[in-house]
Write a structure and sequence with these properties.
By secondary structure, the chain is α+β, with helices and mostly antiparallel strands. 29% of the residues lie in helices and 26% in strands. The protein contains 13 helices and 23 strands.
Length: 460
C-alpha cells in the first residue's frame, strides 16, 4: 500500500503531474472493495429529501453506497436513517420503496422495530430468551451523523467526519441553487413524484466524473439539440444562458466538489424560457424578477451540472434534478435520480416540468441514453488486458485555474477556469480524482487534512 504524501497523486493510479489516470481504478476488484471502506464508509452521502417523508411514520427505502438504508420520520416527527437490516439475521426489515408504518417487522424471524429504531417486538421473548435479552442494545443500526439541509437529508457512517457544512465548504452556495426557490426564497424545493432508478454496466466513477463538469462530450447530445427539446421549445436547454453569460468550471480543491457554472452580466435577467407554454413562461419570468429583487448580485449565479464528492450529482437549472451513483460492484452502477420543483409552484407548472424532465433525463430520457452508451463503452474499454496498460488523458486546461475569480464585481470561490471561449477543461475531473486519491491514501480525517496542507505548501 502506498503512503500518503504531498505529491498529490496515488502512485501508479492517479498522477496529477502528468494528468494521467489508470484504467485500473475502474475495474479492479481490490480497489473497488477498498473504496467501500475508505470512501463510502467515511464520506457524507445524499440519502433523500424531507418532502418524501412529510408525516410521522412515513418512510422511503434509500441507499448509502452498497448499503440499503431506511429514511423515516418517527412518531414524534424526528428524521432518522437506519441500516435496513435486522439485528438478528440480517434480513431487510423494510422491503417497500415507500409508505407509512408504525413498526418495521422482519419477515424472517419476526423481530420488530419502531420508527425510532428501538427493538420493540421479539417472538418468544419469555420462552426462548427467558426474558433476559437486552432489547435496548439490539435496535436498528443508525448512521453516525445525520444532517438536514434545506430539506435535503445527508448521512455518514463515520462519527469523526467533519460536520456536513464544513464538508461542503464553499460549495454550499451551489447546493443552495438546487434547494432554494426559483424566486430566491430559501428551502422551497420538493421532490416531484418518485425516484427514477436504473442500472448501468459501468463503474460509479464514470457518471460521477461526467457530472463533475465534462463539457467536452456535447457531440454526444447533438441529436437532442437538433430535436429542439430545450426549455424554450427549441435549441439547447441552456442556450439562452450560454449566450449571455460567462461559463465557468468551479472546483473546491480542499473538498473534491466541482461544478459548471454561469455568471450573468450585471443587471441582466436570464433570457425567457418555456415560451411554448405561456403560463409556465410567465411563472418563471416572475420568479427571475423576484430572485433578483431578493438576492441582488447573487441572483447572477446560474447553476449547471456539478458533483458533490463522492457520488451526488446536481443539475439545478434545466432540468432541476439530483442524482446518486450507487456502486453495485466494480462493473455496475445503480443510478437514482430525483426531480425537483418549488413546492408552491402552480399545478400547470409542475405538470409541464414533469413531462419535460422525463423526456430529457433518466433511462428513458434522450440525453441520459447518450451518456449511458458512453459510460458503457468506456467501462468495457477499461477491462481488457492490453487496454489496462494504457492510462487515460486528463490534460485539458492544466495550469489555467485561478483563485478569487471575479466578473463584473461578483467573486466566485474556489479554483475557477473561465471556459467561455476555450469551451472545455478537465480541471473538474482532476479535482475529483485528487480527492479520490486522498480518501484512498489517508487513514482518517486528520490525515486527510494534513495531506491537503502539505499538498498546498508543495504547490506554493
Amino acid at each position: 500500500m502506498a503512503t500518503a504524501s504531498s505529491s498529490g497523486y496515488r502512485p501508479g493510479l492517479v498522477d496529477l503531474k502528468s494528468a494521467e489516470i489508470s484504467r485500473e481504478i475502474f475495474v479492479n476488484e481490490a480497489i473497488y472493495a477498498e473504496e467501500q471502506e475508505k470512501i463510502f464508509a467515511r464520506a457524507w452521502l445524499l440519502v433523500g429529501h424531507e418532502s418524501q417523508i412529510p408525516n410521522p411514520g412515513d418512510f422511503v427505502a434509500a441507499c448509502m453506497g452498497e448499503e440499503s438504508v431506511i429514511l423515516c420520520r418517527d412518531r414524534a416527527g424526528e428524521v432518522h436513517v437506519f441500516l435496513n437490516s435486522c439485528r438478528h439475521r440480517g434480513m431487510k426489515v423494510c422491503r417497500y420503496d415507500e409508505g407509512n408504518t408504525a413498526v418495521f417487522t422482519c419477515p424472517y424471524h419476526g423481530w420488530s422495530y419502531g420508527t425510532d429504531g428501538r427493538l420493540i417486538g421479539v417472538p418468544y421473548f419469555r420462552e426462548a430468551y427467558h426474558s433476559t435479552l437486552d432489547r435496548s442494545q439490539w435496535g436498528l443500526v443508525e448512521v453516525a451523523q445525520l444532517a438536514r439541509y434545506k430539506g435535503s437529508v445527508w448521512a455518514t457512517w463515520d462519527p469523526t467526519a467533519p460536520p456536513f457544512l464544513e464538508y461542503l465548504g464553499d460549495f454550499t452556495r451551489f447546493l443552495d441553487l438546487q434547494l432554494d426557490g426559483w424566486d430566491g426564497r430559501e428551502a422551497q424545493a420538493e421532490v416531484l413524484g418518485g425516484i427514477e432508478k436504473w442500472l448501468v454496466p459501468c463503474n460509479w466513477k464514470f457518471p460521477a466524473e461526467n457530472f463533475s463538469g465534462d463539457t467536452y462530450h456535447n457531440i454526444s447530445h447533438r441529436s437532442v439539440d437538433l430535436a429542439g427539446i430545450g426549455p424554450s421549445g427549441s435549441g439547447r436547454r441552456d442556450m439562452g444562458e450560454r449566450n449571455v453569460s460567462r461559463k465557468l468550471h468551479v472546483c473546491i480543491p480542499d473538498r473534491g466538489h466541482q461544478t459548471i457554472h454561469y455568471v450573468l452580466p450585471k443587471d441582466e435577467l436570464p433570457p425567457p424560457a418555456y415560451q411554448n407554454a405561456p403560463i409556465v413562461a410567465e411563472y418563471f419570468r416572475h420568479c427571475e424578477e423576484e430572485k433578483q429583487r431578493r438576492l441582488g448580485d447573487m441572483a447572477r449565479l446560474v447553476g449547471a451540472p456539478g458533483e458533490i464528492f463522492p457520488n451526488t450529482a446536481l443539475l439545478s437549472r434545466q432540468p432541476r434534478t439530483m442524482a446518486a451513483w450507487h456502486p453495485r460492484g466494480p462493473h455496475q452502477t445503480e443510478c437514482w435520480r430525483w426531480f425537483f420543483v418549488d413546492k408552491d409552484a402552480p399545478s400547470e407548472v409542475k405538470a409541464f416540468l414533469r413531462d419535460y424532465y422525463i423526456r430529457y433525463s433518466g433511462p428513458g430520457g434522450m440525453t441520459e441514453q447518450d451518456d449511458m452508451e458512453n459510460w458503457n463503452y468506456a467501462h468495457a474499454a477499461s477491462r481488457g488486458t492490453i487496454a489496462r496498460r494504457h492510462p487515460y488523458n486528463y490534460q485539458q486546461g492544466i495550469g489555467t485555474a485561478v483563485a478569487n475569480y471575479e466578473y463584473q464585481g461578483l467573486r466566485v470561490p474556489g479554483e475557477v477556469i473561465d471556459i467561455t471561449d476555450v469551451q472545455s477543461s478537465e480541471q473538474p475531473a482532476r479535482n475529483f480524482y485528487r480527492r479520490w486519491a486522498e480518501f484512498m491514501e489517508a487513514p482518517d480525517w486528520d490525515a486527510l487534512a494534513t495531506w491537503r496542507r502539505n499538498d498546498r505548501a508543495a504547490a506554493e
